Each structure stands twice: as C-alpha cells, then as structure tokens.
Amino acid sequence: MQPNQPSQPNQLDQVAGERLSHANRIFTSDLSVNEFALLHGAGFEPIDLVMGVSVYHVGFQFTGIRQQQELPVLTEATYRARWNAMSRMQAEADSLGADGVVGVRLEWRQHGESMEHLEFIAVGTAVRFAKSPGSYRRPNGQAFTSHLSGQDMVTLMRTGYAPIAFVMGNCVFHVAVQGFRQMLSQMGRNMEMPQWTQGNYQARELAMSRMQAEAERDGANGVTGVSVDISNYAWGYHTVEFYASGTAIRRVGEGDPILPQFTLGMNS
Question: I need a surface site. Which of 92, 117, 134, 192 has the fewest CB within 10 A?
Fold first, then answer.
C-alpha cells in the first residue's frame, strides 16, 4: 500500500514567490544548449528554474533481527519527504503558469551531523508551450513534471505521447539475519541466500507496484525511463530502501514515424 499523500498540495513559499516574480524579465534554466535548442524548436520556451526542498527527520522503527518485513514508518518518512519536495517544486511551476517541468532531478543528501536527518531536493526547468499555453498541462490543470531530458521530451512528443507526471514508489525493507547454523552451512559453498533473494524481490515489487499505481491514478498509458535505486541511509546492512521512479505518459495523437539517421562525428 502506497503511503498516504497529503490531501492538499504545498502552497508557494513566500521567499520563492519573490524570486519568481522576476521571471518575466529573464529566464534561468539548467537545460544544456542542445536541450534548449531542441525544446525551442518544438515550441517550448523556458520560464525559470523551479525547485522544492524538504529536510526530514526519519524516525526509528523497532524490529526483530530475525523478522523479514517492510518497515512502514521508514517507508512513509522517505516517501513523504520526497512528496514534499516535489509538491513545492510543482507549486512554483504552477505559479508561473507553466505547461510543464522538464529534466526533473529528485536527489537526497545527509543533512548536518545527524544520520537521521535527510534533505530531499527536487529541481527542474519550468517551460511554456508558446503557440498554445496550457495545452500540455495535466487534466487537473497543473503543469506536467518529467525527468526526461530535452532530447527525450522532443522524441516522445514526435511519437504522439505527452508526459503527465513524475511518478515514484518506495519500500523500506528489513531482511532477516540468518541463523548461525545456516551461516555455517554456507561457508565455502556456492548457494543462494533465500532470505536476501526473497526480501529484495518483495521490496522491488512493492516499490514498482506503487509507482505504477501513481501512474494509473493520473490516467497514464505507461511509464517511461523507469529506474530503481537502492539505499540504506543510516539503517545498517540489513535494512534497505528500494525506490522506483519514472515519467508517466499519455497518448495524445498518432505521431510521426521516426527513421534512423546517419551522423558523422567531427572527430572521426
């Protein structure tokens, strides 16, 4: 079961609102020159760099070393922190009247000296479809979010699909410690470690299914660019988080056939 999302999105931060009020004067962007050129050719213009931040204290959950199970307290904490960061980035994009946010990066780092304090940061470039502003927004009126690069975005739209939202799912799982007899039986032998195999498999499946549930909620036809990352933060060797993310997409047209082209590098 996916951790519950807050019923209301985060409001635009006052400090961010002051910075974004100058967006009509000059844009800022983390797009590369190639990404900027391709998106411009596809009719998108950058508005401003948008971001969201959440510094979160991850609580502690007791579990027996021989217990094989998900740790819902830790799953909820790491999901909620990511949701906060993404929601605040979304609020900045929506305040600018953006059609979407491209090149979204959702990253984390340890905050300060405490191992339990984590900072999650979401960053991307808000863009507007110049010919028809608003036409690429999500059905609920919000700007789309996507981790795809500018090149991938243009290619996606040529196929008749459009991004909806950056979707994610996670699972923090404790893998049971094996008994002393089992450890002795494995010494010097090639054999599978069933608790690790099953634990990792179960945690990945939970993370993937939760990501897919977000995409289905948003009315997507599929999820592209999926990646699965593994971290254990400060929990030790036997507790790991599996985190799945990608861009949910929907079909908006027939698209054009894309034929391979021969290119010759200048340094060949």
Answer: 192
The CB density around residue 143, as the number of other CB atoms within 10 Å, is 28
Q: What is the per-residue pLDDT for 88? A: 94
Rounded to an integer, the average pLDDT of 82-107 is 94
Is pLDDT above 60 for 106? yes
Q: Which of 184-188, 204-208, 257-261 has the lowest mean pLDDT?
A: 184-188
Q: Give residue-wise pLDDT tens across range 139-163.
A: 889 999 999 998 999 999 999 999 9
The yes-or-no verdict on residue 31 having pLDDT over 70 is: yes
Structural domains for the chain = 22-251 (3.30.110.70)
3-class SS string, the chain: CCCCCCCCCCCCCHHHHHHHCCCCCCCCCCCCHHHHHHHHHCCEEEEEEEEEEEEEECCCCCCCCCCCEECHHHHHHHHHHHHHHHHHHHHHHHHCCCCEEEEEEEEEEECCCCCCEEEEEEEEEEEEECCCCCCCCCCCCCCEECCCCHHHHHHHHHCCEEEEEEEEEEEEEECCCCCHHHHHHHCCCCCCCHHHHHHHHHHHHHHHHHHHHHHHHCCCCEEEEEEEEEECCCCCCCEEEEEEEEEEEEECCCCCCCCCCCCCCCCC
- Looking at this protein, which amino acid is placed at residue 12? L
Q: What angle do CA 132, 144, 204 make, to 5 degrees?
A: 155
Estimate to the nearest angstrom the gap between the alpha carbon of 197 and the chain centroid: 25
